[in-house]
Amino acid sequence: MNHPPHVLALSELRRDSLTTAGGKAANLGELIAAGLPVPDGFVVTIQAYRDTLDQAGIDPVGAADLTDLRSTIATVAPPASVSEAILVAYRDLGAGPVAVRSSGTAEDLPGAAFAGQHDTFLNVVGETELLDAVASCWASLWSDRVVEYRRDRGFADDDVAIAVVVQRMIDSEAAGVMFTANPVTGARDQTVIDASPGLGEAVVSGVVTPDHYVVTTKSGRIVESTRGRREVVIRSKSDGGVEHGTEPPSTAPVLSRSRLRELTALGRRIQRHFGAPQDTEWCLAGGSLYLVQSRPITALPDPLPKIDLRRRVAARMLGEMLPMRPYPIDVSGWIDINLTGVGHFAGAMGIRFPCAAELFTEVDGVVTTVTPPAPRPSPLAPVIIARNAWRGESYSEERMLAHPMFTRFRAAVQSGLERDLASLSIEELSAELTDALTLFNEVMRLRTRFMARSVLKVARFGACLVLLGKRRLATMLLTGIETKTSATNRALEDLADLIRTRPQLSIMFAEVPVAEIPSRLADSADGRVFAERFTRFLEEYGHRESIMLMVSQPTWRDDPTIVLGMLKAMAAAPRPVAGGSAVVRAETELFDHPLVRPRFIRNRLARGLAQARDFTQFREDTHYYCTMAMPVVRRILIEYGRRLVSTGAIDQPEDVFHLHLDELTACPITTADADRVRDLVERRAALREQLADKPLLDPRYLRSSRPVSDALVGGTSGSSGQATGTARLVTGAGEFDRLQPGDILVAPYTNPAWTPLFARAAGVVVDTGSAMSHAAIVAREYGIPAVLGAAGATGVIPDGSTITVNGDQATVHLASEPETATVSTVD
């Protein structure tokens, strides 16, 4: 029986060589067979690895100490037959500089790339150095990260082995990666190329921001081109190894148009040969392109259907309303009743809005994804709007507050907040919950009465702007009216003034942790005055939500430390004055138009503007009033939770949010049901934990549809202007006090509860939202630039870096990295 060889030329390999040469080497053999440009080389086979370990008596499977195992393998002397075969092949290759790369049997497969997991050694020079590099590649099969990675993907330790690819070193002028399908959008008709000067390791390891190109695969047309920052350039050293350096700034792209077309054509040939989209590594030297790796693209998303404007706007709205995964009680209770109300609301405009079942995909009661709708007006929408406008009323706050429906709503809310829930039977508690949920729709039905006329007034004013050629001023002009949001912010500023002007309070808020402030207020006269004012504030505004559609999350009344955290930040600086300068400029530009100079036209336009602005007040204020029912619903759910704790079904009242509404109310849950309920809650909690890193909304729905040149991120303009400042990432209410005056607020979402921060911020960048979101309206009031719908901003913008927010172009640029930032390399 012939002994399997220890070394094979790459040209001898094919895709069925996986168990002999590993995934990387087998794919390189396929590239060579297809006539594609691959540097000459050979593979040290898996048999060489096994024979070496057998001779040394090393059994890696089940080793107690991985560090000791790696050290042993990296220093073991191969059998003479192995080392001689390697060195003969090396000499045949010219005995010059080589690249030494691991090639595992579980590597570069469709479901497991093992990208960057095993070790690579570049510019290896000399026979001893080569043998050491091969042994180190063998040892990398047992690094902590590799063992964890493969176990997570179901590969048993005794099912894997490793080969080593040795190739002539290409001292590249430029290098990078190429995906033959768009790995972000899933588009199969686009090729994505990243390029940087020097060796490709800088791009692969992530230590450099490369030039980024998106090219139409068939035509070679450049769809997107973004200049990299070239922070690091990796070059070969004359005596072996590599060095990290920098190069003088250059505005020239790394790749020319003709070179991009050449690379794209190579990508087409590679994909055609393998029959599937490929993730490749390439390098450019002496005017020639070389391929040094190809593997299937893992986790390539399915291409989305065409994302039209309606779906993109809906996605940004949902992203703002659902910044975290809703609990089952949110979806089946508060969100479901909200969507019913929105359906009535949209129906008044002749638009059908989907129900919860059409938006949410669930597994075992846990939401996995949300699909944004593309609501389309009915052909009869004009008739429906006209009919509802004729039947409806013109909005004013006074008219709404005096309406009998609203009076009944306020009375029911107050009664719900005062009800002694502990004294109710389970049947009475269930009836109380049903009544509380329907409270929301009381205001929504009232809202519908005013909707049609409000929209018509906005449409009429919008038509005037179009006729005057001033349509771009619309969102700015609709700002500048008193709303309950601005009243809330003003009340907060009044509390902050109290802190600023009372020395005892100033010291307390500056030095005491937010969680301890409530217990310290009674210790001083100033504290008692503040406590009384604060209680009145919560009575008026305490129903404000932390997250818009989620009753599972505490309101201000439920968790006053949310507000105290805001006040801590606000009191640290003088009271700001709302700028609104952009609104004034927009008004000036409008009324300076030659056609508006006649007094009667000017007066008519001014009336039209005032009526259109009523829509902004209508939208903000009715949202404010609708949410008054939220703390009523939440306290009933918490009472359910307390009762379940007493049965032993759950550990804390908040665990009740893991249950669906019908599971909670269908029948009384007794001690006999405790094990079943506990199992259900624990199973759903575990599933939520597994889904923690999975986005609720496909990010492609949120991503800007247009290139953003060399910007960090781009989105939608929420407020015009430009500002430069320190980026401060604030991911939730508990971090409000991190924002310092003059910082740029960078957040995953905002809602009315966040807007007091805008008085401190020099600018705002939000992952979600649109030009008419709460964040945009308040940013315009304060006259600060805002970029909304900037999908991924919180993951891209470094906290503490200096950034420039351009609200006119809807882009964010990096001015400087944070001082503490470091650049690290990955093997």
Calculate the mean pLDDT score and round it: 85
Uncertain stretches: 107-116, 820-827
> What Rg do the Cα atoms give?
32 Å
User: What's the overall geometry?
Assistant: globular
Question: Descriptors for this entry?
Answer:
Glucose Oxidase, domain 1; 827 residues; kinase activity; six-stranded antiparallel sheet; Dna Ligase, domain 1; disordered C terminus; eight-stranded mixed sheet; alpha+beta; 15% strand; kinase; globular; ATP_grasp_subdomain_1
What does this entry look like structurally?
Among the domains are: 1-169, 2-Layer Sandwich (Dna Ligase, domain 1); 397-432 and 455-648, no CATH class; 699-816, Glucose Oxidase, domain 1 (3-Layer(bba) Sandwich), CATH 3.50.30. It is globular and about 95 Å long. The longest helix is centred in the middle third of the chain and has 42 residues, at 426-467. The two termini are 39 Å apart. It is built from 29 helices and 23 strands. An eight-stranded mixed sheet has the order 16-23-22-18-19-20-21-17. Strands 9-8-7-6-12-13 form a six-stranded antiparallel sheet. Strands 1-2-5-3-4 form a five-stranded antiparallel sheet. It is of the alpha+beta class. Helix 10 (328-347) crosses helix 15 (426-467), helix 15 (426-467) runs antiparallel to helix 24 (630-647) and helix 17 runs antiparallel to helix 20.
